[in-house]
Write a structure and sequence with these properties.
By secondary structure, this protein is of the alpha+beta class. Helices cover 27% and strands 28% of the residues. A hairpin with a 2-residue loop joins strand 3 and strand 4. The protein is elongated, with a radius of gyration of 31 Å.
């Protein structure tokens, strides 16, 4: 069995010498063996660990395979978009793949996370060509090159009449998103004509009627009944080549003696079945699709199009017709190698001739200043994209494509931005289409030689190794943690969001994701696809830490650190731009030396994309939460010393000078923008996160033994910051955006922006000011605020409100019901939660679900604090602050045994899951000394030890 067929069998269940299921188990066992070898455990322990790992993997595999992310039509809607695509996606953190194409044509758009334009020197703006930010790269297209190719899409269609926007061209283009095709005016005589541009051989045609596209009852009454197919050399003199009367079928496939013609006309004499009042009184011709072919031979039995986004393995599986032949494809991107691989197998009974093209640029929203080119090196085709010279930097990236298992039938060719090779795939044969991706970054060397060399040297043996590593990466990713919610819709969102995180911030990540992940398909991406620092950039990672995947955040914190020198410069030199009038009135126009001031937008290279502040000081504060969370969940003291303190201390220095003192109240006052363009006193999100920053800095100095000369100053400021602002609304105390009556500049009149995002509760999360064990009065005020806001459907609120609600103990069943209603309303088929503006940030609500199952507040872990009590649930290896991995199950409302692994050796504290009962803590079966005080179990831990906790 060839190497390619081994990988093919793993994808599609084909095997030699065994059933599909047995073959698949073998592949899993191979991966498991690799894992165990790397662990180097003693034989007995290894056997036990292997059994546990494989049992868990079987659970995860079953759960993820049941999540349907598939398509049955070839419209590929929103594959090329200014936001995040809605089609099947792949990614390794650096290279992304977006499924695209048209009927009979398969395209994989290839993107690169660090392919970032410096822009034309002007600030980023909404969908502006030339803005600094990520840009499109190119792609690979697989399409027919043989006689079976549909000739119609290359022609120009006209018609006797047209109803509304249902133009004649819709019937032949294959890209009509409505599925209606061409629709005529009312009448009994109509024609649809195609000009092929030059004489072509025609021997067969296919008509899809109304009933083939729309399956609801009654549509078949609009199927065309009588017509004649005509051909012409000049468009004037017509020859009848086929006549049909009395048709009732949804699809017509007819052959005739091949003839040469430039023009083809479908002359319709009875456009409907005439079987309903409407088709009798208002007859219209309706042709959703007309296809023309040179070869009169009947094709292989058509297969229905089906494409599946396999989130378990990070792959796209496609079944479709190309060149009238059924083919199957499996596509993946190397976890640690920037190679995109499509394994294509022909299930045709005759040879299939295909064009495989590499191209640069984009099909929509293309910046004319970009340089797109393509070429050929031996049997490899390549495409290059490059930003123009004379800008802040030049970036360029290349992709090089070669086919393993087939030799080009003729020398590959290149024209403009596209290079193409023609191959033949024999019946039952398999080929590997390998695309190497190189370049990106600032001022890279020409990436073409590198990409071409990688494609040229790739062998099937190497592909097998890459495939094994790719599968192993996803297996290890999913085994980091998993949950069982006994709710298919919640799990569909949860695991879909985790898949997006792994694809976006995975092994190959060199720069952090912008607003739309690594999938940039146009040059005019909304908001320049940048890192928006007033929550959007940080939000996708909200749930990464508790999901036991804190490493996903490192590229983000590294980029923020890279920007710190510029933020310090802005604090010194650009402070007046924050709010010129207020800054000058308060004598701050000279800037704040040693502080840090971040603008709203930056690129993943640590450069400025949007230099404006919109009167907000929260940009640096929100960025700081990524550092603080990373440390809180890992207890990595090196990271605390080298990254956290150096980043947050300049923020503290900034606010030390920026804050105003209210002598009457004996407290500090913070003037800033609570929203973009707003201005207020004591902005709730700024106050909340500033308190977190100061608290973290004070504790870090103590932990690390840093002799900070301002340590007492930080304590003084923290102790004299005002309480979070509130007001009474309808008899209930609720949290406001800022001090009531002080919000200006954004047209607000209710101090809360009721119906919009819960900015007024960002002190709960990511500010960490209150949690599930906090003062019940404050938690109730937060719950009342959520109800008063009623902003659950707001586009910005998805990664915010649900986590905030879980943190304060919002009624569990109602919270789940609201979350599910939003998922139901907004989730698209590739499992992302969609709106018209945002992208990857919607993954941030992972944290809400994790917090329903597990929270830590005040150093005390709480199990199942916010998941409906009547629903059985369990979780494995969720991570909590203090570097604890926690696993627990609840059945029938009762928590079973609990296991906690201490990574850093911190003291463990757990709210007693069995109120009124004594608890025992064990390590390797032996009792561990513990205390049960005030309903909290506590015990000392050692690093790397796993403890079991159960009632006695």
């Amino acid at each position: 069995m060839s190497h390619a067929l081994v990988r093919y069998a793993a994808r599609w269940g084909r095997s030699e010498g065994g059933s599909p299921r047995r073959r698949r188990r073998r592949a899993v066992a191979t991966v498991a063996a690799i894992t165990l070898t790397s662990l180097a455990l003693p034989a007995t322990q290894a056997g036990t660990a292997a059994a546990a790992t494989e049992a868990e993997w079987a659970t995860i595999r079953s759960k993820l395979e049941a999540i349907d992310s598939s398509w049955t039509t070839e419209d590929y809607r929103n594959s090329v978009t200014t936001t995040q695509p809605d089609t099947a996606l792949l990614g390794n953190g650096d290279v992304g793949v977006v499924s695209s194409g048209s009927p009979g044509v398969k395209t994989f758009i290839v993107t690169k996370g660090d392919f970032i334009s410096p822009g034309d020197g002007q600030p980023a703006d909404y969908q502006r060509l030339g803005s600094p930010g990520p840009i499109a790269l190119g792609g690979v297209t697989i399409e027919s090159a043989g006689a079976g190719r549909n000739l119609a899409p290359g022609g120009t269609a006209t018609a006797s009449s047209v109803h509304d926007d249902f133009a004649a061209q819709n019937a032949i283009s294959g890209t009509d998103p409505t599925g209606e095709g061409w629709v005529s005016a009312i009448g009994s005589q109509h024609w649809l004509q195609v000009d092929l541009g030059s004489p072509r051989q025609i021997g067969r045609y296919v008509v899809k009627h109304r009933g083939a596209t729309f399956t609801d009852p009654g549509q078949e009454a609009m199927n065309t009944r009588d017509w004649t197919l005509q051909t012409s050399a000049d468009g004037t003199t017509w020859n009848d080549v086929d006549t049909v009367t009395g048709n009732t079928a949804d699809r017509t496939d007819r052959s005739f003696t091949p003839t040469q013609a430039r023009y083809v006309r479908l002359n319709i004499t009875k456009p409907t079945q005439g079987s309903t009042p409407d088709t009798i009184d208002n007859p219209r011709a309706r042709i959703p699709r007309l296809s023309l072919y040179a070869d009169p031979d009947a094709p292989d039995t058509p297969v229905a199009f089906r494409e599946r986004q396999d989130i378990l393995n990070g792959e796209i599986d496609t079944e479709m017709m190309i060149d009238e032949a059924p083919v199957r494809m499996s596509t993946w991107v190397g976890a640690k190698s920037n190679r995109v691989v499509t394994t294509l197998t022909s299930n045709s009974s005759k040879p299939v001739t295909l064009n495989v093209s590499a191209w640069s640029g984009t099909t929509a929203g293309q910046d004319p200043a970009m340089q797109n080119s393509a070429g050929v090196t031996g049997d490899t085709v390549w495409a290059l994209r490059k930003t123009p010279a004379g800008r802040a930097w030049v970036t360029q990236a290349a992709l090089a494509t070669r086919v393993i298992g087939a030799v080009p039938l003729s020398a590959p060719t290149a024209t403009g931005n596209r290079a193409t090779m023609t191959i033949q795939v024999d019946p039952g044969a398999t080929v590997d289409i390998v695309t190497a991706v190189e370049g990106g970054g600032k001022n890279p060397a020409d990436p073409r030689p590198g990409a071409t060399a990688i494609a040229d040297r790739t062998t099937r043996t190497e592909l097998d190794s890459l495939f094994t590593a790719h599968r192993q990466w996803w297996k290890e990713y999913w085994l980091k943690s998993y949950v069982n919610l006994n709710d298919p819709l919640l799990e569909r969102y949860y695991y879909g969001a985790q898949y997006q995180l792994g694809s976006t911030f995975g092994e190959g990540t060199t720069t952090p994701s912008g607003l739309y992940g690594i999938w940039t398909t146009r040059d005019d991406t909304s908001y320049a696809g940048d890192l928006h620092l007033n929550y959007n950039a940080i939000a996708p990672l909200y749930g990464a830490y508790s999901s036991n995947r804190p490493q996903l955040a490192r590229s983000m914190t590294d980029t923020f650190m890279a920007y710190l020198p510029e933020a310090k410069r802005r604090s010194r030199e650009d402070l007046v731009a924050l709010n010129p009038t207020w800054i000058r009135e308060n004598g701050l126009e000279g800037g704040i030396d040693g502080g840090a001031l971040f603008p709203v937008g930056m690129t993943a290279f640590g450069d400025t994309s949007n230099p404006y502040y919109y009167q907000q000081t929260m940009n640096g504060l929100f960025s700081a939460t990524a550092f603080i969370s990373s440390y809180a969940y890992t207890q990595d003291r090196t990271f605390l010393r080298d990254k956290v303190v150096p980043f947050i201390r300049p923020l503290a220095v900034f606010f030390k000078t920026y804050l105003r003192w209210d002598a009457t109240k004996g407290q500090y006052v913070l003037y800033t923008g609570h929203n973009e363009g707003g201005w207020s006193r004591n902005s709730s999100p700024d106050l909340g996160v500033l308190k977190l920053v100061l608290k973290t800095l004070i504790e870090a100095n103590t932990t690390l033994g840093i002799d900070d000369p301002d340590q007492e100053t930080w304590k003084y400021i923290l102790g004299r910051l005002p309480a979070q602002p509130t007001k009474v609304l309808n008899g209930k105390t609720v949290f406001t955006l800022a001090d009531p009556g002080t919000t200006t500049g954004t047209g607000e009149s209710d101090d809360m922006n009721i119906g919009r995002q819960t900015v007024n509760l960002e002190f709960v999360h990511p500010g960490e000011l209150i949690g599930i064990r906090s003062d019940p009065t404050m938690r109730q005020q937060a719950i009342d605020t959520l109800d008063a806001m009623n902003g659950w459907a707001n586009d910005n609120t998805f990664p915010k409100s649900f986590t905030q609600a879980a943190r304060v103990g919002y009624p569990a069943q109602r919270l789940v019901d609201i979350l599910k209603s939003r998922i139901q309303a907004q989730m698209v088929q590739n499992l992302r939660v969609s709106d018209n503006h945002h992208g990857i940030e919607k993954a941030g609500a992972i944290e809400a679900i994790n917090n329903m199952l597990l929270q830590s507040d005040g150093g005390v872990m709480v199990l199942f604090p916010g998941y409906p009590s009547g629903v059985n649930a369990n979780f494995v290896r969720l991570r909590e602050k203090g570097a604890f991995e926690v696993s627990a199950a609840r059945t029938g409302g009762t928590v079973g045994g609990v296991t906690i692994t201490s990574e850093a050796g911190a003291t463990a504290r757990l709210q007693n899951p069995w109120p009124g009962r004594n608890v025992r803590v064990r390590l390797n079966g032996n009792s561990v000394s513990s205390k049960l005080t005030g309903g909290v179990i506590s015990w000392n831990t050692t690093p790397g030890s796993t403890y079991t906790i159960d009632p006695r």
